[in-house]
Amino acid sequence: MRLILPLCLAALLATPAPAEVRAVLVGVGDYLVLDADLHGPTHDVRLMAEVLAGRGVGEMVVLTADPSGLPAGVATGQPVRAEILAALEAVAAASNPGDTVVFYFSGHGAQAPDMSGDEGGGYDEILLPADAAGWKGAIGAVENAILDDELQAWAQAALARGVKVVGLIDACHSATGFRALGGAGVARVVDEGLLGIPQDVVPVAGDPLPPLRGEFVFLYSSQSDQRSFEYPLGDGATWHGEFTLRLAQVLRDAPEASWAQVLAATREAMVQGPARQMPEGEGPLLEAQVFGQGAGAARLPVAGGRLEAGLLQGLATGAEVALYADPAGGEALAVLPLGEVTAREATLVGAVPAGAAWAELVSAPPPDPLVLAAPVVADHMDHYDYRAWRAALPAPAPNPDLVPILVDGAVALAGPDGVLDPAGPGSSPRVSRLAGETEAEAVARVLEQAAHGLRLREVLAGATGRGLTARPPLTMAVERRAADGCGAVGAPQPFDPGQAVGPCDQLWLTLTNTGGKAQDVSVLYFAADFEVQPIWPQANLANRLAPGESVRVGLQIEADSAAGLEEIWVLAVPVDPDAPRVDLTRLASPLITRDLSGAAMTDWLAGRLDPDTRTRGFSLKPAPLVLLRQSLRLAPAHSMEN
Considering the domain 21-287 in this protein, what is its CATH number? Predict the structure, then answer.
């Protein structure tokens, strides 16, 4: 949800030392009037408070209905309008030039007609505190909502005094173009109908507010035309906003990152997760380093034979950790798998050596089999006969990877959020019969392709380790050449992930080996319909880059591509000069993935791609694989602007 109008860069102000960081964290899960309760915000504010405390934020006010489990010394209150605004005023007043104020909000967002005339789009963007109610004609507003105008006025007053402002918003306001029809997720949006906004209310026209000036950065959980979702963790009891969960993990693991780097890492983590949302950020401080120091070390504490970390740190049953005596350096004492994993703890399977006090993730577990939710009908059943499609679908299971949606006489496969066609009409993959196929054969074929693509993505992410601060030995620069239809191709421009790519556009990658060892490089493409396509090398050409060497790899979007979110994967394996070449493009084939006996597959990757070949002779070092991933959003030709 966007709270602030587009901005202008301002001169950076002098920062006195020592600077302080203060925070107001708001989690609204229980609504007092609206029938719009959420599961995750109470857990979100606790998690964010823990992370900020680890980064040195001392003074925090947490407004939540359930303050249990918060760090010591945190002030608490209720997440109602009056207390939220009072807390914001108090932390701003207590801050001096150079200090930083953090405002974090987890809960519902919405839109309401602009009755002051300062919004170019005719609608105010609002946050809904616990005491928010419906539309009140007497005041021309949603009762007790917090308007973006109010937040902008508060932020500008603080900025004018030289206080830095950080806004982290896990909410959304738009449901336009989306149909959430099932799945595990809950969208954090309240529509006009629930708020009781009359259809005949006409927004007031006027002049927009001036842009903010000062040092600030705002991170939003999704684009302005997307929903933001919350999901249950693997234990089924702990819910979190997808944005908050991934953001917290990045803030914890990357102590020296800039806000732009944090946003990029969060976005990439969300691509792996169930959410169909892309976070956004803005502000002069995007390139500045995040305040304070990180909690830590990549290693996680061990006490009483248990690991004091769990699902919130990205761990799962079957993951392997190396045990150490010290928080950094030293030799590994043992490598053990994880048993039961809860939100914040994990059981170590096997004998824990004496002196083991820290653990470091070695590898992720093999992925679970692909499962589907119960099918959902999106149109009138009397128009189509879905009996054959229903019979062809496998039995539903909890925590689904995909939600089958019966629509227009066929089956669409939505993500776990159950959103049909999130990137435009037809962007959810369809199951359609080929010539001579039955419905059962079509479903089996498409699900095999989906299982291969989704599981390969998980396996590669797990095999590359978790380090965010280590510099990879390979860099990737991307440029785009927009096409005029499928005719002339334009001049190269830097690729902007926020701008949609159209059919026939070209993308060019410049890959450079910046490490001290030769790298065998492969490029794959993960399409919106789950197909994994080999891009480079082709025809068994050489793919080894010596230190300092670069290569350019081009690809063109197919003319008949449907809208959707897709990814480019660049894989690099460090090799000795005399070693055989490693070409990972054969991973694009489901047949190769099932049979990894080919000479080009190294033993460490085979053990991770095929659970049946997995042994317990664990290496004490993470797999030597680098994965660079670039997300891109495809739009149909008629929607592109050249």
Answer: 3.40.50.1460
